[in-house]
Each structure stands twice: as structure tokens, then as C-alpha cells.
Amino acid sequence: MQRGERQVEFATRRRTQLFDELVTLFLAQGFARFTLDDIAAELHCSKSTLYTLAKSKDQLVRAATIHFFRVATEHVDSQIVGHQDARARITTYLTAVGSALERASDTFMADLADFAPAREVYEMNTRLAAARVQELIHEGVVDGTFRDVHAAFAADLVTTMMVRIQQRGVRASSGLEDADAYRELATILTNGISS
């Protein structure tokens, strides 16, 4: 490996590390109350280092949100590899989504709901997750695990519940923590559409 390649690899690793630390900070404490100076102090880096990640705090929050959902999506997708049974794939997928969001504090979720650029990232990821559930349902219909249901409608139902979970509406009405709500959603969905 040449010197220039090592420098690029180090810079990429350092950038990923900073985003991981930033996500950990935001998930635990939210982001609305932090200034760039606060964030730099929390991450033990300079403000100029943060500017290498994004040009403003708003862009930094959006970039960190994208990073969080990209890493979470990779993890969630990896959880269903090897599962052949359609029920197990949907249950594993939705449970993994819930687990990925377990680290998110109420403060983070409230900040996310109040900050349009980050909320849009969440909503886009919710739509992508629902589309993935729709694919899994369709696969289950094809292999006979599920009765012939309208997969798009089932996915829309899942999307609606995912948004209610994210907005803490399910917790307020049922007392269920997010991860538990995703497990319940998986159980109700897979039992409701089973052959």
C-alpha cells in the first residue's frame, strides 16, 4: 500500500470513527441543545475537524442521521441472511429494526421529530424498510407461507405502525418500548397473513 493510499484509508477510518461517536452522542443526548463547540468538546476534536464532516451543524446532524440509518440498515439486513422461512425473515427483520432503535433516547427521537432534515432521513428509511417488508411478504406468498394478501397494503400497515412507534405514539398508548412494539408488530403481521 502506498503512502497516499494509507493516508486516505486513515482519513476514511477517522471519519467513520467520528460519525460513530457523533451518532452515539446524539442517540444518548439528542442534538438540539448542542452547538458545534459543544460537539467538538464532547468528541475531543477541533471544530475545524467537524467542518471536514459537514459545513454547518444542521448538515452535521443530517449526515450523522444518514450514517446511523446506513449502519443500522446494514445490520438489519445482515440479520435475515440465512433465514429461509418467510415468517422468520419478517420477524427477524422487524425485531432487528426495533433493536437498532433501542439506543435512541427520548430526547433524540423528539429532536428528530422537530428537525425536518433529520426527520426526512428517518421517513425515507421507514419507507425503505416498509418496501423491504413488502418484498418479504411477497416472497412468503410465492412460497406458500403466507396466504395471498395484498403485500402493498400490508407494507403500508407496517409503515403506519413504524411511524407511530417512532413518534412514541405506541409507547404512549400501550406502554410498550419500541423494540417490544416491533416484535409485537412482527407477530401480529406474520400470524395475520399466515396460510
Automatic annotation (TrEMBL):
Residue ranges constituting the HTH tetR-type domain according to the UniProt record: 12-72
UniProt keyword list: DNA-binding, Repressor, Transcription, Transcription regulation
InterPro entries in alphabetical order: Homeodomain-like_sf, HTH-type_TetR-like_transc_reg, HTH_TetR, Tet_transcr_reg_TetR-rel_C_sf
KW DNA-binding (keyword) present: yes
DNA-binding region: 35-54
Stated name of the protein: TetR/AcrR family transcriptional regulator
Natural source organism: Mycolicibacterium komossense
